[in-house]
From TrEMBL:
Species in which this protein is naturally found: Zhihengliuella alba
Keyword Magnesium found: yes
Positions with a binding annotation for Mg(2+): 45, 84, 116
The protein's name in its UniProt record: 3-methyl-2-oxobutanoate hydroxymethyltransferase
UniProt xrefs under InterPro entries: Pantoate_hydroxy_MeTrfase (IPR003700), Pyrv/PenolPyrv_kinase-like_dom (IPR015813), Pyrv_kinase-like_dom_sf (IPR040442)
Enzyme Commission no: 2.1.2.11
Length: 264
């Protein structure tokens, strides 16, 4: 199948079609999602939480992200691979942002990057795009600013809606090919989508966005604990894996595994 390109995502919005994104951090899951027709794979800095066990996305480094990015790029055939610029890898200057973005394209095999932040980062986005690095802008709730925002909270409510729309417009004008919104009221996300020519992606942002994204460990029920309200769980992988590991342990202890068929 033909590779997904950024112009295909633009066309989806023009033609009123939806597209999909899932996070991926390794080659095998990337391969499975790609074969299932998921259009875009996000090497999210949520790898800090879901792969490395950190409490927030803040600690993950560029070098760590590069390992996940390379792995996903190796597993993807059709999907567009987007990699997050992690906390501390772009904020200082447009030069720092370009340097990091280029590394993800050159060493990480990414096809695009995602950067958190509003209109303030328009210059960073413009410089990345000029360097040949396609950019998704991430607005609304931005997990790298969890402490600045005072925890996981819906953004863009009430008067803040205007600022969110202004941010989205500035980032589009700077050359972002897509704007991702996290935890934004559905009607505000719809307004942002209507204000932009470029496609939008939502997570906890209602159904008006062009695309939707979920973290795979949430979507497949691997993660323990209470899920955010915006997650729909499509499988219970935690039980599947737990039960399989238990059956294996019992077989080894009882001597049922390995049997003759598994022996030489
Ligand atoms: O890192 C991530 O998984 C993300 C998505 C939640 C959009 O940025
Ligand atoms: Na992220």
């Amino acid at each position: 199948p033909a590779k997904v390109r950024i112009h295909h995502l633009a066309r989806a919005k023009e033609e009123g079609r939806k597209f999909t994104m899932l996070t991926a951090y390794d080659a095998l899951m990337a391969e499975v999602f790609d074969a299932a027709g998921i259009d875009t794979l996000l090497v999210g800095d949520s790898a800090a939480n879901n792969m490395m066990g950190h409490a927030t996305t803040l600690p993950i480094t560029v070098d760590e992200m590069l390992v996940f990015s390379r792995s996903v790029a190796a597993g993807a055939q059709r999907a567009l691979v987007v990699c997050d610029l992690p906390f501390g890898s772009y904020e200082e200057s447009v030069e720092q942002a370009v340097r990091t973005g280029v590394r993800f394209m050159k060493e990480g095999g990414a096809h695009a990057v995602k950067i958190e932040g509003g209109a303030y980062y328009a210059d960073h986005v413009r410089a990345l795009v000029n360097a040949g690095v396609p950019v998704i802008a991430h607005i609304g709730f931005t997990p790298q600013s969890e402490h600045a925002l005072g925890g996981y909270r819906v953004q863009g409510r009430g008067d803040a809606a205007t600022a969110l729309i202004d941010d989205a417009r500035a980032l589009e004008a700077a050359g972002a090919f897509c704007v991702l919104m996290e935890m934004v009221p559905a009607e505000v996300a719809a307004e942002v989508d209507a204000a932009l020519d470029v496609p939008t992606i939502g997570i906890g942002a209602g159904s008006a966005t062009t695309g939707q994204v979920l973290v795979w460990q949430d979507m497949l029920g691997l993660r323990r604990g209470r899920l955010p309200r915006f997650v729909k769980q499509y499988a219970d992988l935690r039980s599947v894996v737990h039960d399989a590991a238990t059956a294996y342990r019992e077989d080894v202890v009882s001597g049922a595994f390995p049997a003759q068929g598994q022996s030489f």
